[in-house]
Amino acid sequence: MSNDSVAEARPKLKLALSWFVVAAGAFTGLYALGIVGSDYLPVGDDSQGWYLRWIDFIGIGLLGAGFLAGSLTAVTNPKRAGFVFLAFLPVTAFCMAYPDAGFLVWHADGGYFESPVPLTAVGLTLLFFAPFAALLFEFRHRKRAAIAFAVSALVAILVFARSRWTSVLLPRLAGYAVPFLLIGLYWLWTNEFRWPVLMQPRSRSIGRRLAVIAIAFGLLLSGGIAMAVFRAAFFSSLFNGDCRAKPPFTHTQHKEHAVFTARAIYVGRSVHTMKDLRLAPENLRESPVGDWAIGLVQERFWGVPSRWPHLVLMTNLIYWKGGTYFIDGGVERSLLSNILPVVAGGIGCSRSKLVQEAGVDLRLLREVSPRRGAIVGRVRQPGPYAGMMNPFDQPKFLSGAQIEVTGADGARLVTTDASGVYELDGLDAGDYTVRLHVPEGQRAGGFHVDGSFFDQSVQTLHLKADAVVECDFALVGK
Q1: Lowest-pLDDT range of 9-18, 304-313, 407-416, 447-456
Q2: CA atoms of 415 and 400, how far apart (whole Å)
Q3: Peptide bond into 179 cis (omega under 30)
Q4: Looking at the DSSP assignment, which residues form a beta bridge with residue 291?
Q5: Whole-angstrom Cα distance, residue 426 to residue 372?
Q6: Quick one: 267 and 394 in the same domain?
Q7: I want to staple 169 with a disulfide (CB 3.0 to 4.6 A). Which of 101, 195, 323, 335 is the partner?
Q8: Residues 375 and 459 placed together within one structural domain of the fold
Protein backbone atom coordinates (compact mmCIF):
# COMPACT_ATOMS: atom_id res chain seq x y z
CA MET A 1 0.00 0.00 0.00
CA SER A 2 1.36 3.40 -0.97
CA ASN A 3 1.94 6.24 1.47
CA ASP A 4 -0.93 8.17 -0.08
CA SER A 5 -3.31 5.26 0.53
CA VAL A 6 -2.19 4.99 4.16
CA ALA A 7 -2.69 8.72 4.63
CA GLU A 8 -6.24 8.48 3.24
CA ALA A 9 -7.09 5.45 5.39
CA ARG A 10 -6.04 7.02 8.70
CA PRO A 11 -8.78 9.69 8.86
CA LYS A 12 -11.39 7.06 7.96
CA LEU A 13 -10.16 4.78 10.74
CA LYS A 14 -10.20 7.69 13.18
CA LEU A 15 -13.75 8.61 12.17
CA ALA A 16 -14.88 4.98 12.43
CA LEU A 17 -13.38 4.66 15.92
CA SER A 18 -14.97 7.91 17.07
CA TRP A 19 -18.39 6.91 15.71
CA PHE A 20 -18.04 3.58 17.51
CA VAL A 21 -17.29 5.36 20.81
CA VAL A 22 -20.30 7.65 20.25
CA ALA A 23 -22.58 4.69 19.52
CA ALA A 24 -21.33 2.73 22.54
CA GLY A 25 -21.76 5.74 24.82
CA ALA A 26 -25.26 6.50 23.52
CA PHE A 27 -26.33 2.87 23.95
CA THR A 28 -24.97 2.83 27.51
CA GLY A 29 -26.85 6.03 28.28
CA LEU A 30 -30.11 4.72 26.82
CA TYR A 31 -29.75 1.44 28.68
CA ALA A 32 -29.19 3.29 31.96
CA LEU A 33 -32.27 5.43 31.27
CA GLY A 34 -34.14 2.20 30.54
CA ILE A 35 -33.17 0.99 34.01
CA VAL A 36 -34.44 4.27 35.47
CA GLY A 37 -37.69 3.92 33.54
CA SER A 38 -38.27 0.35 34.73
CA ASP A 39 -37.20 1.16 38.29
CA TYR A 40 -39.38 2.88 40.86
CA LEU A 41 -38.96 5.98 42.96
CA PRO A 42 -38.49 4.93 46.59
CA VAL A 43 -41.23 7.31 47.71
CA GLY A 44 -42.61 6.40 51.10
CA ASP A 45 -39.62 4.23 52.00
CA ASP A 46 -39.28 4.63 55.76
CA SER A 47 -36.55 2.03 56.33
CA GLN A 48 -33.33 2.98 58.09
CA GLY A 49 -31.33 3.18 54.85
CA TRP A 50 -33.96 4.97 52.76
CA TYR A 51 -31.50 7.59 51.51
CA LEU A 52 -29.27 4.85 49.99
CA ARG A 53 -32.07 3.85 47.59
CA TRP A 54 -32.51 7.47 46.54
CA ILE A 55 -28.77 7.86 45.94
CA ASP A 56 -28.68 4.67 43.87
CA PHE A 57 -31.66 5.84 41.79
CA ILE A 58 -30.03 9.23 41.17
CA GLY A 59 -26.74 7.56 40.28
CA ILE A 60 -28.28 5.46 37.52
CA GLY A 61 -30.04 8.55 36.17
CA LEU A 62 -26.79 10.52 36.15
CA LEU A 63 -25.03 7.63 34.42
CA GLY A 64 -27.59 7.67 31.62
CA ALA A 65 -27.69 11.46 31.34
CA GLY A 66 -23.90 11.77 31.41
CA PHE A 67 -23.22 9.17 28.74
CA LEU A 68 -25.96 10.51 26.48
CA ALA A 69 -25.02 14.17 26.88
CA GLY A 70 -21.31 13.49 26.42
CA SER A 71 -21.77 11.18 23.43
CA LEU A 72 -24.11 13.54 21.59
CA THR A 73 -21.85 16.52 22.32
CA ALA A 74 -18.86 14.62 20.92
CA VAL A 75 -20.41 14.60 17.45
CA THR A 76 -19.61 18.29 16.97
CA ASN A 77 -17.31 19.24 19.88
CA PRO A 78 -14.98 16.50 21.24
CA LYS A 79 -13.28 18.81 23.74
CA ARG A 80 -16.56 19.85 25.31
CA ALA A 81 -17.65 16.20 25.34
CA GLY A 82 -14.54 15.28 27.29
CA PHE A 83 -15.32 17.87 29.94
CA VAL A 84 -18.95 16.68 30.09
CA PHE A 85 -17.81 13.13 30.90
CA LEU A 86 -15.31 14.35 33.47
CA ALA A 87 -17.87 16.69 35.05
CA PHE A 88 -20.35 13.84 35.54
CA LEU A 89 -17.63 11.48 36.78
CA PRO A 90 -17.24 12.22 40.53
CA VAL A 91 -20.91 12.65 41.44
CA THR A 92 -22.03 9.65 39.40
CA ALA A 93 -19.28 7.41 40.73
CA PHE A 94 -20.18 8.42 44.28
CA CYS A 95 -23.91 7.76 43.79
CA MET A 96 -23.24 4.38 42.18
CA ALA A 97 -20.60 3.24 44.67
CA TYR A 98 -21.89 4.51 48.01
CA PRO A 99 -25.15 2.49 48.42
CA ASP A 100 -23.28 -0.85 48.24
CA ALA A 101 -20.27 0.22 50.34
CA GLY A 102 -20.42 -1.19 53.85
CA PHE A 103 -20.23 -4.25 56.08
CA LEU A 104 -22.68 -6.83 57.33
CA VAL A 105 -22.66 -6.52 61.10
CA TRP A 106 -24.08 -9.41 63.14
CA HIS A 107 -25.47 -9.28 66.65
CA ALA A 108 -27.24 -11.79 68.84
CA ASP A 109 -30.61 -10.39 67.75
CA GLY A 110 -29.78 -10.36 64.04
CA GLY A 111 -27.68 -8.44 61.54
CA TYR A 112 -27.74 -5.20 59.61
CA PHE A 113 -25.79 -3.48 56.83
CA GLU A 114 -23.55 -0.69 58.10
CA SER A 115 -22.55 2.05 55.63
CA PRO A 116 -20.24 5.02 56.18
CA VAL A 117 -22.13 8.15 57.18
CA PRO A 118 -22.75 10.43 54.18
CA LEU A 119 -20.20 13.09 55.21
CA THR A 120 -17.47 10.47 55.60
CA ALA A 121 -18.29 8.95 52.21
CA VAL A 122 -18.32 12.37 50.51
CA GLY A 123 -14.98 13.31 52.08
CA LEU A 124 -13.33 10.05 50.99
CA THR A 125 -14.73 10.49 47.49
CA LEU A 126 -13.31 14.02 47.22
CA LEU A 127 -9.91 12.75 48.39
CA PHE A 128 -10.03 9.95 45.83
CA PHE A 129 -10.66 12.33 42.92
CA ALA A 130 -8.43 15.19 44.17
CA PRO A 131 -5.23 13.96 42.44
CA PHE A 132 -7.01 13.55 39.11
CA ALA A 133 -8.62 16.97 39.42
CA ALA A 134 -5.16 18.47 40.07
CA LEU A 135 -3.84 16.90 36.88
CA LEU A 136 -6.83 18.11 34.89
CA PHE A 137 -6.66 21.75 35.99
CA GLU A 138 -2.90 22.01 35.71
CA PHE A 139 -2.25 19.77 32.73
CA ARG A 140 -0.73 22.62 30.68
CA HIS A 141 1.91 23.21 33.40
CA ARG A 142 3.62 19.88 33.89
CA LYS A 143 5.74 20.84 36.86
CA ARG A 144 2.85 22.46 38.71
CA ALA A 145 0.57 19.52 37.85
CA ALA A 146 3.15 17.02 39.14
CA ILE A 147 3.46 18.86 42.46
CA ALA A 148 -0.32 19.18 42.91
CA PHE A 149 -0.81 15.53 42.04
CA ALA A 150 1.91 14.36 44.42
CA VAL A 151 0.62 16.40 47.37
CA SER A 152 -3.04 15.42 46.92
CA ALA A 153 -2.11 11.78 46.31
CA LEU A 154 0.01 11.68 49.48
CA VAL A 155 -2.84 13.08 51.58
CA ALA A 156 -5.26 10.60 50.03
CA ILE A 157 -2.94 7.65 50.67
CA LEU A 158 -2.46 8.59 54.34
CA VAL A 159 -6.21 8.95 54.89
CA PHE A 160 -7.18 5.80 53.02
CA ALA A 161 -4.48 3.82 54.84
CA ARG A 162 -6.20 4.55 58.16
CA SER A 163 -9.85 4.43 57.07
CA ARG A 164 -11.89 1.30 57.71
CA TRP A 165 -14.04 2.12 54.68
CA THR A 166 -11.21 1.94 52.14
CA SER A 167 -11.72 -1.71 51.19
CA VAL A 168 -15.46 -1.31 50.52
CA LEU A 169 -15.54 2.17 48.97
CA LEU A 170 -12.31 2.60 47.01
CA PRO A 171 -12.70 -0.34 44.56
CA ARG A 172 -16.27 0.69 43.78
CA LEU A 173 -15.32 4.31 43.16
CA ALA A 174 -12.52 3.20 40.85
CA GLY A 175 -14.75 0.75 38.98
CA TYR A 176 -17.50 3.28 38.27
CA ALA A 177 -15.01 6.06 37.48
CA VAL A 178 -13.09 4.13 34.81
CA PRO A 179 -15.72 4.30 32.00
CA PHE A 180 -16.25 8.07 32.42
CA LEU A 181 -12.53 8.69 32.76
CA LEU A 182 -11.50 6.66 29.72
CA ILE A 183 -14.12 8.12 27.38
CA GLY A 184 -13.60 11.65 28.70
CA LEU A 185 -9.83 11.42 28.19
CA TYR A 186 -10.39 9.88 24.75
CA TRP A 187 -12.36 12.90 23.55
CA LEU A 188 -9.85 15.34 25.07
CA TRP A 189 -7.05 13.41 23.41
CA THR A 190 -8.72 13.42 19.98
CA ASN A 191 -9.20 17.18 20.29
CA GLU A 192 -5.59 17.73 21.42
CA PHE A 193 -4.21 15.82 18.43
CA ARG A 194 -6.63 17.38 15.94
CA TRP A 195 -8.56 14.29 14.98
CA PRO A 196 -11.30 14.96 12.42
CA VAL A 197 -14.58 16.16 13.92
CA LEU A 198 -17.51 13.87 13.17
CA MET A 199 -19.85 16.69 12.12
CA GLN A 200 -19.11 20.35 11.69
CA PRO A 201 -21.34 22.55 13.90
CA ARG A 202 -23.75 24.82 12.05
CA SER A 203 -24.91 28.23 13.07
CA ARG A 204 -28.63 28.17 13.82
CA SER A 205 -31.17 30.67 14.99
CA ILE A 206 -32.57 30.44 18.49
CA GLY A 207 -35.82 29.01 17.14
CA ARG A 208 -34.01 26.23 15.28
CA ARG A 209 -31.90 25.44 18.32
CA LEU A 210 -34.98 25.12 20.47
CA ALA A 211 -36.57 22.88 17.84
CA VAL A 212 -33.47 20.69 17.75
CA ILE A 213 -33.47 20.46 21.55
CA ALA A 214 -37.17 19.52 21.55
CA ILE A 215 -36.66 16.86 18.88
CA ALA A 216 -33.61 15.49 20.70
CA PHE A 217 -35.55 15.34 23.96
CA GLY A 218 -38.40 13.49 22.24
CA LEU A 219 -36.01 11.01 20.67
CA LEU A 220 -34.25 10.43 23.98
CA LEU A 221 -37.58 9.93 25.75
CA SER A 222 -38.68 7.46 23.09
CA GLY A 223 -35.33 5.70 23.26
CA GLY A 224 -35.54 5.46 27.05
CA ILE A 225 -39.05 4.01 26.84
CA ALA A 226 -37.95 1.53 24.18
CA MET A 227 -34.98 0.48 26.30
CA ALA A 228 -37.17 0.07 29.38
CA VAL A 229 -39.56 -2.10 27.35
CA PHE A 230 -36.60 -4.11 26.10
CA ARG A 231 -35.40 -4.72 29.65
CA ALA A 232 -38.85 -5.76 30.84
CA ALA A 233 -39.23 -8.13 27.90
CA PHE A 234 -35.68 -9.47 28.25
CA PHE A 235 -36.29 -10.54 31.85
CA SER A 236 -39.77 -11.98 31.21
CA SER A 237 -39.98 -15.50 32.59
CA LEU A 238 -42.51 -18.32 32.83
CA PHE A 239 -40.92 -19.60 36.04
CA ASN A 240 -42.72 -18.44 39.16
CA GLY A 241 -41.15 -20.71 41.73
CA ASP A 242 -43.20 -22.87 44.07
CA CYS A 243 -46.75 -21.54 44.45
CA ARG A 244 -50.31 -22.80 44.60
CA ALA A 245 -53.35 -22.13 42.46
CA LYS A 246 -55.09 -18.91 43.39
CA PRO A 247 -58.77 -18.91 44.44
CA PRO A 248 -61.33 -16.53 42.89
CA PHE A 249 -61.46 -12.98 44.20
CA THR A 250 -63.80 -10.01 44.09
CA HIS A 251 -61.59 -7.15 45.25
CA THR A 252 -57.99 -6.00 45.02
CA GLN A 253 -55.46 -8.27 46.69
CA HIS A 254 -52.54 -5.89 47.23
CA LYS A 255 -51.27 -2.43 46.39
CA GLU A 256 -49.86 -3.32 42.95
CA HIS A 257 -52.68 -5.69 41.98
CA ALA A 258 -53.98 -5.18 38.42
CA VAL A 259 -56.99 -6.95 36.90
CA PHE A 260 -58.18 -6.31 33.34
CA THR A 261 -58.69 -7.92 29.95
CA ALA A 262 -56.52 -7.07 26.96
CA ARG A 263 -56.01 -8.19 23.38
CA ALA A 264 -52.42 -9.02 22.44
CA ILE A 265 -51.59 -6.88 19.40
CA TYR A 266 -47.88 -7.73 19.40
CA VAL A 267 -46.04 -10.66 20.98
CA GLY A 268 -42.36 -11.19 21.60
CA ARG A 269 -40.00 -13.66 23.20
CA SER A 270 -37.42 -13.14 25.88
CA VAL A 271 -33.86 -14.28 25.26
CA HIS A 272 -34.43 -17.23 27.58
CA THR A 273 -37.49 -18.36 25.62
CA MET A 274 -35.77 -18.00 22.25
CA LYS A 275 -32.95 -20.17 23.59
CA ASP A 276 -35.39 -22.82 24.86
CA LEU A 277 -37.29 -22.90 21.54
CA ARG A 278 -34.25 -23.67 19.42
CA LEU A 279 -35.03 -27.40 19.64
CA ALA A 280 -38.82 -27.02 19.45
CA PRO A 281 -40.81 -28.06 16.34
CA GLU A 282 -40.59 -25.60 13.46
CA ASN A 283 -44.31 -24.77 13.52
CA LEU A 284 -43.98 -23.65 17.15
CA ARG A 285 -40.84 -21.61 16.50
CA GLU A 286 -42.63 -19.76 13.70
CA SER A 287 -45.93 -19.32 15.55
CA PRO A 288 -46.97 -15.82 16.74
CA VAL A 289 -46.51 -16.77 20.40
CA GLY A 290 -44.23 -15.45 23.11
CA ASP A 291 -43.83 -14.84 26.82
CA TRP A 292 -44.51 -11.08 26.63
CA ALA A 293 -46.91 -8.94 24.64
CA ILE A 294 -48.13 -5.42 24.02
CA GLY A 295 -51.83 -5.49 24.86
CA LEU A 296 -54.74 -3.21 24.06
CA VAL A 297 -56.86 -2.97 27.22
CA GLN A 298 -60.47 -4.02 26.69
CA GLU A 299 -62.08 -4.01 30.14
CA ARG A 300 -60.66 -2.56 33.36
CA PHE A 301 -61.41 -3.61 36.89
CA TRP A 302 -58.52 -2.00 38.78
CA GLY A 303 -54.78 -1.40 38.72
CA VAL A 304 -54.20 0.04 35.21
CA PRO A 305 -54.62 3.72 34.30
CA SER A 306 -57.50 4.77 32.10
CA ARG A 307 -55.64 7.40 30.12
CA TRP A 308 -54.79 7.12 26.42
CA PRO A 309 -53.47 5.08 24.62
CA HIS A 310 -54.75 2.16 26.76
CA LEU A 311 -51.66 0.05 26.05
CA VAL A 312 -50.02 -2.30 28.53
CA LEU A 313 -46.87 -4.42 28.46
CA MET A 314 -47.78 -7.91 29.66
CA THR A 315 -45.05 -10.33 30.76
CA ASN A 316 -44.58 -13.73 32.42
CA LEU A 317 -47.31 -15.64 30.56
CA ILE A 318 -47.77 -17.38 27.20
CA TYR A 319 -49.38 -14.92 24.78
CA TRP A 320 -50.65 -15.49 21.23
CA LYS A 321 -51.01 -12.55 18.89
CA GLY A 322 -54.68 -11.68 18.49
CA GLY A 323 -55.72 -13.53 21.63
CA THR A 324 -57.66 -11.77 24.39
CA TYR A 325 -56.51 -12.43 27.95
CA PHE A 326 -57.86 -12.02 31.45
CA ILE A 327 -54.90 -10.72 33.44
CA ASP A 328 -54.58 -11.09 37.19
CA GLY A 329 -51.12 -9.66 37.78
CA GLY A 330 -48.91 -7.15 39.49
CA VAL A 331 -47.99 -3.73 38.13
CA GLU A 332 -44.29 -2.96 38.32
CA ARG A 333 -43.69 0.23 40.28
CA SER A 334 -41.66 2.21 37.78
CA LEU A 335 -41.53 5.54 35.98
CA LEU A 336 -42.46 3.70 32.79
CA SER A 337 -45.79 2.67 34.33
CA ASN A 338 -47.03 6.24 33.92
CA ILE A 339 -46.71 5.84 30.13
CA LEU A 340 -46.84 2.09 29.49
CA PRO A 341 -47.86 -0.05 32.48
CA VAL A 342 -45.84 -3.25 32.86
CA VAL A 343 -47.89 -6.10 34.33
CA ALA A 344 -46.55 -9.57 35.11
CA GLY A 345 -49.26 -12.12 34.34
CA GLY A 346 -47.80 -15.19 35.97
CA ILE A 347 -48.45 -18.90 35.42
CA GLY A 348 -49.88 -21.00 38.25
CA CYS A 349 -49.54 -18.25 40.84
CA SER A 350 -52.31 -16.13 39.35
CA ARG A 351 -55.64 -16.53 37.57
CA SER A 352 -54.36 -15.06 34.28
CA LYS A 353 -55.74 -16.98 31.33
CA LEU A 354 -57.44 -16.63 27.96
CA VAL A 355 -60.66 -14.67 28.33
CA GLN A 356 -62.82 -17.54 27.04
CA GLU A 357 -61.64 -19.57 30.02
CA ALA A 358 -62.29 -16.79 32.53
CA GLY A 359 -66.09 -16.99 32.80
CA VAL A 360 -66.05 -17.49 36.57
CA ASP A 361 -63.70 -14.58 37.17
CA LEU A 362 -65.58 -12.19 34.90
CA ARG A 363 -68.92 -13.05 36.46
CA LEU A 364 -67.66 -12.37 39.97
CA LEU A 365 -66.05 -9.09 38.96
CA ARG A 366 -68.84 -7.74 36.78
CA GLU A 367 -71.69 -8.45 39.16
CA VAL A 368 -72.36 -7.58 42.78
CA SER A 369 -69.96 -9.32 45.13
CA PRO A 370 -71.41 -12.52 46.69
CA ARG A 371 -73.01 -12.22 50.10
CA ARG A 372 -70.87 -13.95 52.74
CA GLY A 373 -69.43 -17.26 51.54
CA ALA A 374 -69.96 -18.53 48.00
CA ILE A 375 -69.31 -21.55 45.81
CA VAL A 376 -68.90 -20.86 42.10
CA GLY A 377 -67.86 -22.96 39.15
CA ARG A 378 -68.29 -23.88 35.52
CA VAL A 379 -69.43 -27.02 33.73
CA ARG A 380 -67.37 -27.80 30.63
CA GLN A 381 -68.78 -29.89 27.81
CA PRO A 382 -66.68 -32.31 25.75
CA GLY A 383 -64.78 -30.34 23.14
CA PRO A 384 -61.67 -28.25 22.56
CA TYR A 385 -59.80 -26.77 25.47
CA ALA A 386 -58.63 -23.21 24.89
CA GLY A 387 -55.23 -23.84 26.37
CA MET A 388 -51.83 -22.34 25.75
CA MET A 389 -51.18 -24.32 22.56
CA ASN A 390 -54.55 -23.82 20.82
CA PRO A 391 -55.76 -20.42 22.04
CA PHE A 392 -58.35 -19.72 19.37
CA ASP A 393 -60.46 -22.86 19.87
CA GLN A 394 -63.78 -21.89 21.40
CA PRO A 395 -64.50 -24.07 24.46
CA LYS A 396 -68.03 -25.36 25.13
CA PHE A 397 -69.77 -24.94 28.47
CA LEU A 398 -73.07 -26.46 29.50
CA SER A 399 -75.99 -24.17 30.29
CA GLY A 400 -78.93 -25.38 32.36
CA ALA A 401 -76.90 -27.97 34.24
CA GLN A 402 -78.09 -28.64 37.79
CA ILE A 403 -75.68 -28.66 40.74
CA GLU A 404 -76.72 -29.79 44.20
CA VAL A 405 -74.83 -28.27 47.13
CA THR A 406 -75.23 -30.02 50.48
CA GLY A 407 -74.03 -28.60 53.78
CA ALA A 408 -74.95 -28.51 57.43
CA ASP A 409 -78.15 -26.59 56.63
CA GLY A 410 -79.31 -29.08 54.02
CA ALA A 411 -79.24 -29.25 50.22
CA ARG A 412 -79.70 -26.42 47.72
CA LEU A 413 -80.02 -26.65 43.96
CA VAL A 414 -78.50 -24.17 41.49
CA THR A 415 -78.45 -24.06 37.66
CA THR A 416 -75.70 -22.90 35.30
CA ASP A 417 -76.36 -19.82 33.20
CA ALA A 418 -75.88 -19.37 29.44
CA SER A 419 -72.09 -19.35 29.84
CA GLY A 420 -72.07 -22.53 31.91
CA VAL A 421 -71.36 -20.75 35.21
CA TYR A 422 -73.18 -21.37 38.48
CA GLU A 423 -72.99 -19.48 41.75
CA LEU A 424 -74.40 -20.10 45.19
CA ASP A 425 -73.73 -17.42 47.80
CA GLY A 426 -74.83 -16.58 51.31
CA LEU A 427 -73.25 -19.78 52.68
CA ASP A 428 -71.89 -20.27 56.16
CA ALA A 429 -68.41 -21.58 56.79
CA GLY A 430 -68.15 -25.37 56.87
CA ASP A 431 -67.82 -28.51 54.78
CA TYR A 432 -69.92 -28.95 51.63
CA THR A 433 -70.60 -31.65 49.07
CA VAL A 434 -71.12 -30.44 45.49
CA ARG A 435 -72.83 -32.89 43.13
CA LEU A 436 -73.37 -32.41 39.38
CA HIS A 437 -76.47 -34.00 37.88
CA VAL A 438 -74.61 -35.55 34.96
CA PRO A 439 -76.53 -35.50 31.66
CA GLU A 440 -77.37 -38.86 30.13
CA GLY A 441 -74.58 -40.29 28.02
CA GLN A 442 -71.89 -38.22 29.78
CA ARG A 443 -69.42 -38.67 32.59
CA ALA A 444 -67.74 -36.04 34.78
CA GLY A 445 -64.05 -36.47 35.41
CA GLY A 446 -61.01 -37.53 33.41
CA PHE A 447 -58.58 -40.30 32.65
CA HIS A 448 -55.42 -41.42 34.42
CA VAL A 449 -52.20 -42.05 32.53
CA ASP A 450 -53.01 -45.77 32.38
CA GLY A 451 -56.38 -45.03 30.74
CA SER A 452 -58.58 -45.67 33.78
CA PHE A 453 -61.33 -43.15 34.50
CA PHE A 454 -61.66 -41.11 37.69
CA ASP A 455 -65.10 -39.78 38.57
CA GLN A 456 -65.53 -36.15 39.65
CA SER A 457 -69.27 -35.75 39.55
CA VAL A 458 -69.19 -35.37 43.33
CA GLN A 459 -66.66 -33.13 45.05
CA THR A 460 -66.17 -32.13 48.69
CA LEU A 461 -64.73 -28.83 49.86
CA HIS A 462 -64.28 -26.66 52.93
CA LEU A 463 -65.61 -23.09 52.84
CA LYS A 464 -64.08 -20.50 55.13
CA ALA A 465 -66.07 -17.55 56.45
CA ASP A 466 -66.86 -15.01 53.70
CA ALA A 467 -64.61 -16.87 51.24
CA VAL A 468 -65.23 -17.75 47.58
CA VAL A 469 -64.39 -21.29 46.47
CA GLU A 470 -64.33 -22.54 42.89
CA CYS A 471 -65.62 -26.01 42.02
CA ASP A 472 -65.56 -26.87 38.30
CA PHE A 473 -66.80 -29.94 36.42
CA ALA A 474 -65.61 -31.33 33.09
CA LEU A 475 -67.80 -33.69 31.05
CA VAL A 476 -66.56 -36.42 28.75
CA GLY A 477 -68.41 -38.89 26.56
CA LYS A 478 -69.10 -42.46 27.58
Answers
A1: 447-456
A2: 5
A3: no
A4: none
A5: 5
A6: no
A7: 101
A8: yes
Q: pLDDT by residue (tens digit) across 341-357? A: 888 887 767 899 899 88
3-38 vs 166-192: helix axis angle to the nearest 10?
140
**Can you name the residues that pair with 477 across neighbouring β-strands?**
442
Q: Among residues 346, 354, 356, 272, which one has the least CA distance to residue 314? A: 346
| Residues 402 and 301 reside in one and the same domain | no
The model's pLDDT over 200-237, given as tens digits with 9 standing for 90+, comes to 776 666 777 677 667 666 666 666 666 666 666 666 76
306 against 365, higher pLDDT: 365
- Domain holding 388, by residue range, is 370-477
The residues near 87 (Cβ < 8 Å, ≥ 6 apart) are none
**82 and 187 in contact (C-beta within 8 Å)?**
yes
Close Cβ partners of 195 (under 8 Å, ≥ 6 residues apart)? 14, 18, 78
Q: Check if the beta carbon of residue 255 is closer than 8 Å to that of residue 300.
A: no
Q: What is the CATH number of the domain that holds 383?
A: 2.60.40.10
Count of domains for the chain: 3
Q: Is residue 152 part of a domain?
A: no
pTM of the predicted model as reported, rounded to 2 decimal places: 0.66
What's the helix, strand, coil split of the chain in %, to 5?
Answer: 45, 25, 30
